[in-house]
Design brief:
single chain; 741 residues; alpha/beta; two-stranded antiparallel sheet; 26 helices; 12 strands; 7% strand
Length: 741
């Protein structure tokens, strides 16, 4: 597994390889997991890589040494995944849950001789308790999980299933909740039992049971389990795993999965595969495209593949793929522990990042306004304050891009990771700001902002084209704990990338427009627009459905405005339809591949008539993100007003914008189209106003920097004495075009 500290060299090397492999590269070319015939899934709820060591857990250590290992994202329908949720997710191959259930140990199954609403249990087998209600509830969720899918697939192929422990019945029960053979614990399984069925699931609950036994305090909070207590529980679980390893027939593929969380904090769990070609190293899957990271739903897909069974459409995961490595077992375990540490560290600061970013800038800008009002007559002091405000604004515009560059350094390993992260982000932001103000272009009104937007767009584009390493566990990216996305552009990164690309395209047309070369300006917008759509929408790169819907009309608007054409509602409608047609075409092509992404699956749902449920789920998520309706209506009114202000600042007497518009031909189209992509992106994605806030986080400070620069120019011109009697007006050393940069 690649350590984050080595990513600087990898990122630089990517510059040379991307151009040659732009169209041919695809994660689908990675080695596929080999096939087999008998599978044992060992579920150890709560197991983390920090629990595994050669002294405490020798059996698990041995499996890791001989097989492939990975972090396991266990997120299901809730923030914290309970053991029964994990087993049901294995059963369905889709995020599932125990309805209205406490996070406790799975219920005991219904055994032969006991009554069951779904009929009598098979002789020697069992039926999961409460199965009809569980199945009905999950069919009605947004994920429409088909509980019993894995067990049904085995039965349809003529095989049988065995469950060891109550939780395992929930994992491999068929559509009726039945397993053909049930044994209460691993120590009671006979040699004949181990060789009976092609699929066996084993519950090892010692670790989770230790937390249950610790109980809760009077406030209902989990009583902390000591390090020694957790180590003892892990050792007890390891002894159970050793019993399974010793009992299974030769040639059996063993899959170990951490399955669920314990306590209130989600973590990455353990995933191990031994046998059937899983050689010592790491694992990945097409669902994550991240080295050393797989998902819980991938466990179902892996089991089906190893059994030689087709994967039903309702199972959304991808098979675990081995990634052989020369790293030692200890090095691999350390790397996977480090992966979880990074996820925990970013989780602690990600939510507050935006508030701190916006609040800090507002305070500094407020101080600058007050200082300017108090120093109306002191031109030298006003010039210094304006210059400082411009630097702060450019620094604020550089922070979003710097937050991704911070992922090049292993900040989470520090004793105080939050403080180190803040310093790292500010350090990269200062470097970007320095580059923006380093050359002769520092006197320009648009070029410093262009440097920042260009670098931001380039960094994000190269990242998703080379594996999305900077997106994971990043302030404005995504985390494996949320498990909404593992590759390509998340909603926040899409918004930042789209706005950066639009501002870059607009400001690059400044000089062609000065020379009245509108065709050149439109060509610049077209080329950058096509590249932006490719990077954002292609499944091998950004793999973003909603992003294309927003980027196409926004760039079309920009092209019209740069060409001096009128933008109308019918034209915008046509552009939006064009964007929808383009993304559906991309989805169609992706649906023909062997491992379609969510784009291809949407096309398959569309053909099958099931796409409306996906659209409804996304739309409801977007509405939920809007929150309190009075606030939402006020926000909508503010956005409409902002459009009018950006379009006609003179009507509203916004002097800062007036000055920027007077000196720049592209400031107005740049800001209007940046706002447009944020609004459209908000409406067509499930993150809602988060997308708009990210758009503002880049566009607002850069707009302010440009406006402040125009005030600096006004102040300088006011200090320049008029030409003397013997001096002609044309003798000035600065041309009008220089003033409009």
């Amino acid at each position: 597994m690649t350590r984050r500290g080595t990513k600087i060299a990898m990122f630089v090397a990517a510059l040379a390889t991307v151009l040659t492999g732009l169209l041919g590269w695809s994660p689908a070319s990675a080695e596929a997991a080999p096939g087999g015939g008998r599978v044992v899934v060992i579920g150890v709820p709560g197991l983390r890589w920090s629990d595994i060591s050669p002294a405490t857990t020798p059996a698990l250590w041995g499996l890791t040494a001989a097989g492939s290992a990975s972090g396991l994202s266990v997120r299901t329908t809730r923030v914290n995944t309970c053991p029964t949720d994990g087993w049901l997710t294995l059963s369905a191959g889709q995020r599932s849950r125990l309805p209205h259930g406490d996070c406790a140990l799975p219920s005991a199954p219904i055994l032969p001789g006991q009554s069951s609403p779904t009929g009598p249990p098979p002789q020697g087998g069992a039926i999961a308790a409460g199965w009809p209600a569980i199945k009905s509830d999950n069919a009605g969720t947004n994920y429409h999980a088909e509980i019993g899918l894995l067990g049904d697939a085995v039965h349809k192929a003529g095989g049988c299933t065995m469950a060891v422990g109550p939780g395992a019945v929930f994992g491999v029960g068929d559509g009726g909740g039945r397993v053909d053979r049930y044994v209460a614990s691993p120590d009671k399984v006979t040699a004949a039992d181990w060789g009976r069925c092609p699929l066996t699931a084993v519950e090892v609950d010692e670790l989770f049971r230790a937390y249950i036994n610790a109980g809760v305090d009077p406030h209902g909070d989990q009583v902390p389990l000591s390090d020694a207590g957790r180590a003892d529980a892990a050792a007890a679980a390891d002894r159970r795993v050793a019993q399974v390893v010793a009992g299974v027939p030769a040639g059996t593929t063993i899959l170990v999965a951490g399955l669920s969380d314990v306590g209130i904090d989600p973590h990455l769990r353990v995933a191990i595969a031994k046998g059937a070609g899983y050689r010592p190293g790491f694992m990945t899957s097409s669902a994550t495209r991240q080295e050393g990271l797989v998902t819980l739903t991938d466990t179902t897909a892996t089991t089906l593949k190893l059994l030689g069974l087709p994967q039903p459409k309702a199972a959304v995961g991808s098979a675990w793929k081995p990634q052989p490595s020369k790293a030692t077992t200890q090095e691999r375990v350390d790397a996977l522990m480090d992966e979880d540490v990074a996820a925990q560290a970013i989780r602690a600061v990600q939510t507050s990042f935006y508030w701190v970013l916006f609040a800090t800038q507002l305070v500094l800008y407020g101080i600058a306004v007050l200082a300017l009002r108090r120093l109306r007559g002191d031109r030298r002091s006003r010039a210094r304050i304006l210059g400082g405000t411009r630097v702060i604004a450019l620094l604020g515009g550089a922070v979003p891009g710097a937050s991704f560059l911070a992922g090049l350094l292993p900040w989470w390993r520090a004793d105080h990771p939050t403080a180190v992260l803040i310093c790292t982000v500010l350090g990269f932001a200062a470097l970007l700001t320095g580059a923006a103000l380093a050359g002769p272009w520092r006197h320009s009104m648009v070029v410093p902002g262009l440097v920042i937007t260009g670098v931001t767009a380039l960094v994000l584009a190269l990242d998703v084209m080379t594996g999305s390493n900077l997106q994971l566990n990043t302030l404005m990216g995504y985390t494996a704990l949320i498990a909404g996305r593992f590759y390509g552009f998340g909603n926040q990164a899409f918004s930042l990338f789209a706005v950066a690309a639009i501002l870059t395209a607009a400001w690059l047309t400044e000089y062609p427009l000065r020379r009245d070369r509108k065709l050149v300006a439109v060509a610049v917008v077209a080329v950058i627009g096509v590249c932006t759509v490719m990077v954002d929408g292609l499944p091998a790169f950004g793999s973003d459905f909603g992003g294309v819907l927003a980027i196409v009309p926004a760039f079309a608007m920009l092209g019209l405005m740069v060409a001096g054409k009128r933008v109308s509602a019918p034209k915008l409608g046509i552009f939006f339809v064009a964007g929808a047609a383009l993304v559906l075409f991309i989805s169609y092509l992706n649906a023909q591949s062997a491992n379609p992404t969510h784009l291809g699956r949407f096309w398959q749902d569309l053909v099958a008539g099931d796409a409306w449920s996906v659209v409804t789920r996304k739309f409801n998520a977007m509405l939920n993100s809007l929150g309190y309706w009075p606030y939402t209506l006020a926000l909508a009114a503010a956005i409409v007003f902002l459009f009018f202000v950006l379009a006609r600042p003179t009507r509203w007497r916004v002097s800062l914008l007036q000055g920027a518009y007077q000196r720049s031909l592209t400031m107005r189209p740049a800001l209007i189209c940046a706002l447009a992509v944020g609004v459209i992106g908000t409406l067509v994605n499930d993150s809602g106003v988060v997308i708009l806030s990210v758009a503002f986080s880049l566009a607002t400070p850069l707009m302010l920097a440009a406006g402040v620069r125009s005030l600096e120019m006004d102040l300088r011109n006011a200090d320049t004495p008029p030409p003397g009697p013997s001096e002609s007006p044309g003798a000035s050393t600065e041309s009008p075009s220089a003033e409009r940069r």
